[in-house]
């Protein structure tokens, strides 16, 4: 296990508690809004888009096509990671986070304006898919910047706790998205909801983005980044040689860490979209339950997860990132075999238990992930490295997860293949995390100054 490294003389001073809390709040609110936009699409794909944009297909095929447009958004996330990572490592985290929020919010609001298939034909799903790509591009750049801004402001001893708060934006955004959809389905008939009610949550994004921008513009740039940038400029002036582009530097010095991050995300990403997105389609389409039952269960479980994430983040500061992460991966692999059995009871308490326990295990992986990935990479390539590792994994993990689960259900008429799918993902994650070295306590500024062989945290 790597021990905490004392900061060198060039380490920037730790921010005041009030400043750190402001950075944490800005990152949490920003990521909540971004994930609200992203998860709103996933929930609507499970409940609405098949009827609105693919009305000529049978219900399960319509859902499958909706999830296909949902998965396409993930294809743009690696591109977002590359572009935002490059410029985030060159000009700073804050500027790129403002841009990602504007792109995501604008695309989401426009989705609420896309006419139905009955109005403009095939142009409707084409426009929907394009806006989904913009969402994916924006989110590909958002995650890395948000968690790094907090990680680089905080101190090594409590980094797992503080960096976990932006991770809370995922369940908070899902909570908000499902809550608004839940409210609309409660106050409207099915006909009204399908006709126009589903558009209201998307249009609401424009208001949320304004709030997020106001808060995000008030925070300072990461002191660790500013210090690293100043040193890079000094080296450039002294050596008269331009720095290697962040992407090339990552591939040269940190390719092992990128592979570890990608493997670590497999179980985390796949399980989350099965637990929160596919479960809606499974309950409504396969079990023929009403929308309220499924939405309420996800709503309550997401609230529990939001409360748990900082607790698991704090636990990773005490016992290490790896033990917490491994427990979550093993747990979700086993729970996949209990999960669908509880859903099949059609009992609301059982469904709620199934989703909540699944999200508890997911939280054990997701909470330490921000600090874990941040501690793998040097400052001047950290945005690129963390984003590439996280978002390239999403293409193979989260993107096809609801699609694969729906296809398996359609082909086999059973949840057993889906449980196998989640378990295989858990095994991949267990292997990846076991191959990594413990990173708890690393000083991010000192990490920048160490030779590669001393700073490499992975043992792949």
Low-confidence stretches: 1-10, 449-460
Span between N and C termini? Answer: 15 Å
What is the string of helix and strand elements?
HHHHHHHHHHHHHHHHHHHHHH
Strand content range: under 5%
Could you report the average pLDDT, rounded to the nearest whole number? Answer: 83
Query: Which class best fits the helix and strand makeup?
Result: mainly alpha
Short note summarizing the structure:
Residues 1-10 and 449-460 have low confidence and may be disordered. It is globular, with a radius of gyration of 21 Å. The protein is built from 22 helices and no strands.
Topology of this protein?
Elements: H1 17-47, H2 49-53, H3 59-75, H4 77-91, H5 93-111, H6 117-120, H7 123-153, H8 159-167, H9 169-187, H10 190-197, H11 199-216, H12 223-239, H13 246-253, H14 255-286, H15 291-319, H16 321-343, H17 348-374, H18 382-396, H19 401-412, H20 416-434, H21 444-449, H22 452-455
Question: Would you mind describing this structure in some detail?
Answer:
The protein is 80% helix and 0% strand. It has 22 helices and no strands. It is mainly alpha-helical and 460 residues long.
């Amino acid at each position: 296990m790597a021990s905490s490294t004392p900061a060198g003389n060039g380490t920037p001073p730790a921010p005041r508690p009030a400043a750190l809390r402001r950075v944490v709040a800005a990152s949490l609110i920003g990521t909540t809004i971004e994930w609200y936009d992203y998860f709103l699409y996933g929930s609507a794909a499970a409940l609405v888009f098949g009827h609105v944009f693919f009305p000529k297909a049978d219900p399960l095929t319509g859902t499958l096509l909706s999830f296909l447009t949902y998965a396409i958004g993930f294809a743009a996330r690696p591109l977002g990671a590359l572009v935002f990572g490059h410029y985030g490592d060159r000009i700073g985290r804050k500027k790129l986070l403002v841009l990602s929020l504007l792109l995501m919010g604008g695309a989401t609001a426009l989705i609420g304006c896309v006419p139905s298939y009955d109005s403009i034909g095939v142009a409707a799903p084409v426009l929907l898919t394009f806006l989904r790509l913009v969402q994916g591009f924006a989110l590909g750049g958002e995650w890395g910047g948000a968690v790094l801004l907090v990680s680089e402001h905080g101190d090594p001893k409590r980094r797992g706790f503080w960096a976990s708060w932006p991770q809370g934006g995922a369940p908070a955004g899902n909570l908000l998205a499902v809550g608004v959809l839940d409210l609309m389905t409660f106050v409207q008939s099915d006909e009204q909801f399908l006709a126009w009610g589903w558009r209201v949550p998307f249009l609401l994004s424009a208001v949320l983005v304004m709030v997020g921008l106001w808060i995000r513009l008030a925070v300072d740039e990461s002191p660790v980044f500013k210090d690293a940038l100043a040193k890079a400029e000094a080296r450039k002036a002294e050596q008269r040689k331009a720095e290697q582009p962040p992407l090339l530097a990552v591939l040269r010095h940190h390719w092992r860490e990128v592979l570890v991050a990608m493997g670590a995300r497999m179980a985390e990403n796949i399980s989350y979209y099965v637990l929160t997105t596919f479960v809606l389609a499974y309950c409504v389409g396969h079990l023929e339950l009403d929308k309220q039952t499924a939405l309420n269960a996800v709503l309550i479980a997401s609230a529990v997860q939001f409360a748990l994430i900082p607790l698991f983040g704090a636990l990773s500061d005490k016992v290490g990132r790896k033990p917490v992460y491994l427990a979550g991966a093993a747990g979700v692999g086993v729970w996949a075999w209990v999960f669908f059995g509880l859903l099949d009871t059609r009992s609301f308490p059982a469904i709620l238990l199934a989703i909540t326990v699944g999200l508890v295990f997911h939280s054990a992986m997701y909470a330490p992930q921000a600090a874990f990935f941040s501690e793998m990479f040097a400052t001047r390539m950290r945005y690129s490295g963390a984003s590439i590792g996280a978002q390239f994994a999403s293409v193979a993990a989260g993107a096809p997860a609801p699609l694969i689960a729906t296809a398996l259900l359609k082909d086999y008429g059973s949840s057993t293949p889906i449980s196998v799918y989640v378990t295989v993902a858990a095994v991949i994650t267990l292997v990846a995390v076991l191959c990594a070295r413990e990173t708890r306590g690393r000083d991010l500024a000192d990490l920048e100054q160490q030779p590669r062989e001393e700073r490499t945290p992975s043992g792949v």
